[in-house]
Amino acid sequence: MRDEIYKRLLKDKLFKTVVIFLSFISTVPLFFILFHLIKNGLSSLNIEFLFNLPKPIGEEGGGIANAIVGTFILILISSFLSIPLGISAGIFMAENRNSKLYKIINLLVEILQGVPSIVLGIVAYLWVVKPMKHFSALSGGIALAIMMLPVIIKSTEETINLIPESLKEASLALGVPYYKTILFVILPSGLSGILTGILIGISRIAGETAPLLFTAFGNPYMNLNIFKPVESLPHLIYNYAKSPFSEWHQKAWAASFVLILMVFTLNILSKWVIRKWKVRF
Amino acid sequence: MGDKEVESKILKIENLNAYYFENHVLKDINLQIPENKITAIMGPSGCGKTTLIRCINRLHELSPGGKVTGKIFLRDENIYEMEPMIVRRKIGMVFQKPNPFPTMSIYHNVLSGYRLNGIKISKIEEERIVEETLKKVGLWNEVKDYLHKRGTFLSGGQQQRLCIARAIALSPEILLMDEPTSALDPVSASKIEELLLQLKESYTIIIVTHNLQQAARISDYTAFLLMGELIEFDKTEKIFTVPSDPRTENYLLGKFG
User: What one-character-per-residue DSSP string does A78-123 give?
Assistant: First the structure.
């Protein structure tokens, strides 16, 4: 009897140890990545690097200011396009779960989520770059917006689904019209979830290279015009990393470090948003 | 149904039928609700009690598959020919689970009927309505120092009184209550019951209840519903002592339900 119990406790311990060990293993790659980034990137990272434009190979110094600004421009364009669309579609889906249209949209959103990002780049190329006859930040923003869209739709839908139906009815029972109920009761109650979805969407696109290859294209100069090609962090990393120059490799590491830091900040920010704006029902 | 000549009827329900998709949930309901009284609607689960009151403020038609035929007159106006928004401002509702708006303060919860409907009132008027309404539901002394805190931090019973305040702030004529005490502890529940007895001075109250004792304690009239049919409607005293239908008696004796 006693032996039985010991055996069981032993098995229990063994299982626990294995699970802890395996979950530790799964974080090892991340530590390696961070280690490499810090080791190779930190040395060339300084204020100048963040605020200067790139210099031709052979010249000392030079930075990635154009890529940082470009990434922000691309994020702004894609957010501007995908947030209103995504929230509207999310509301529709949460509110019409039994309709036929829901099933169709849901299927399409899931397919859209699985479309390879390079394909979205090609689509944006055909839709925007070709008719306009030149590469532009706008076309890159559109490609990224399509990528962001399913994330925002899904998170909005899930957030609204979690809001008790009784809240909506409480508002309707006061004689409040449906659209006002959605805008002023439901959306504010789901704000933290929707914002989190947006931030996750942004961190998803911030590191995308493929859709930008033949849309935003890249630009060694500072550009604020959305109708002109624009540099971006992932694209700059891609260019520098495949170059034959070791100084550029160094810069690619440093730029990667900046990019990771950005995504990391977005993640922390979204955690903070959840905590701060969580609505208790 | 005796004594009806002395009381005026505020609500007349005529041949009301309600459906959920194919499901016929209310069958030919005819009912006249007296003014400034508490009318209890009782019956076993699934008999259509909640659907009945949701027809009265036209909420039922918003549920998927919800359909209504027949007429309901508020005074002399058929509410099914009125704007639903107007009907719902005249007929307030309190739900089973307290559901104050979680993003709003206590103050704004009370005023939400005005704010969300875009009815403009002055700051002084706002403050008067908040104070008066919270006093009416007996919440003023408990929350007057926390008016700008969120309503969700209150206890369940306080939240429910806040919801009643939110409903009566718009000065409705009728107050519909869908088992308003079933999610509350007994002490909070009895406070709500006391409150209802005070509120019937100013409003007509229709309350759905599972709790027979509650119906007996607070209501003046009782309607007994069974499988979507109105079996009996009379003074509460009479229903609980000498019901005219054997099915009512069986239900009261706990033989089904």
Answer: HHHHHHHHHHHHHHHHHH-TTSHHHHHHHHHHHHHHHS-HHHHHHH
